[in-house]
């Protein structure tokens, strides 16, 4: 049995794909980021607050339209330390990507975490706050990162 | 009225390996079918129907079951194909169970396989995430550096599983050394299983700790390989089992179930509301399956488990969620040797998914290995020597949200 690997060249045309996606959740979210606010939707039946907020409750399966603003501080839920880049090459300055549960929200937001010196000392449950870019334009990139308090 | 169903034979195509350039998909499946039939007195014409499955298009072939059907003797017979991601193997087996339990057929063969050297699984996984990625880019994440949302997907499935691992470690008050320890145990278990892919006899915690970190806390040694392999199982009704004179060396299906919760990692568009390590759905399904199997206390009545763990921290997490140990007790149980082949509650004597992962086969291999343990036919020294009455087999897939659970036992449930 031979172990050699063959390489076959081919192309994958990504522009051939078309997707329809319910965009209202992120539309509301980036409307908020322009004014440095975090907006979501609350279910009037079960009280679950979604950020970004879809137009329906994923638990009750009913339409929801109550827009709420949640706190810009929250709790670090989980994180991973990126010690290598996407090509697997070790990076000089490791960085942390994390999921954060903002106060008043029932869902998790993802982002990068800063404000630490030694990554071994970062623990779940630490308090964090949102840091904005200086100029906001109404895009996901407006939310620069989360900062340890 | 549902009928009792038994697994009477489990066959593999041979040892699972990373590359099989010498065979194509039908040729990979065929030896497993022959092997399963050869362990019984059945002939190919005795099989009434087939349920088969693999991951869709991971091998670049869209409907391989049509191509392969005559190679597993499926010509002119009902053939159903199922693909549900990581749980494919278990879904295939569950469909085969319902074929028989419903009274529709008496003898059904279930086949699961994957030939990962013919395609790129990571490209396949990327295809699943394309709509999310396109949608996110529409809303303008920071793509100027490797950081930000552009960098989040960098780790592939490991990047997502790392969040689950971190959350689990915090809940169970454990450390990365526990993941190293359980990974080493799985690789040395695999050395006792002649069909396992990554066999490392006497693998130690230090061997695993030497491997580089992919996405903290997950190392290269904590992740599953990409394997090629196939498994075939024969399921028969209670009447047929009696007719064939089969009473010993068979495994009765006592309870089974599946469930899904919300996609817990990757759903950045609609707000992710579930912690990936919580796995409430696994607890719900397990409870339902135990009541179907007549098991009152899983801690006492179940002697062994085969869990689907693509990443090593899951070898600790699933026994807790399946109710086999107390919540948060797995690291302690591991340290006192309870999860070893000769331990109190052996977990994955076969070496598990972190040692062998032919995706479409993996969840069925869990059921097959559980059946072999009940029959007392596990080869190469990974047979559990303690008396086994009930075994639980578990499957996991999707974006951390699909779960299947099965209980096999020595005696059928009285209806």
Q: Which structural class should the secondary elements of chain A be placed in?
A: mainly beta
- What's the CATH topology label of chain B? Peroxisomal Thiolase, Chain A, domain 1
Please mark out the parts of chain B with pLDDT under 50 across 5 or more consecutive residues, or reply none.
none
Number of strands of chain B: 11
The biggest beta sheet of chain A is recorded as:
5 strands, mixed, barrel
Oligomeric status: heterodimer
Q: Rg of chain A from C-alpha positions?
A: 20 Å
Give the count of helical stretches of chain B. 14
Output the number of helix runs of chain A.
1
> How many β-strands of chain A, per DSSP?
8
CATH H-level name of chain B... which superfamily?
Answer: Thiolase/Chalcone synthase
CATH superfamily of chain A: Nucleic acid-binding proteins
> From the 3D coordinates, which CATH architecture of chain A would you assign?
Beta Barrel
What percentage of residues of chain A falls in helices of 4 or more residues? Answer: under 10%
Whole-number mean pLDDT of chain B: 88
- The CATH C-level class name of chain A: Mainly Beta
DSSP strand (E) fraction of chain A? 35-45%
Terminal CA distance of chain B? 9 Å
- Strand line-up in the sheet with most strands of chain A: 4-5-6-8-7
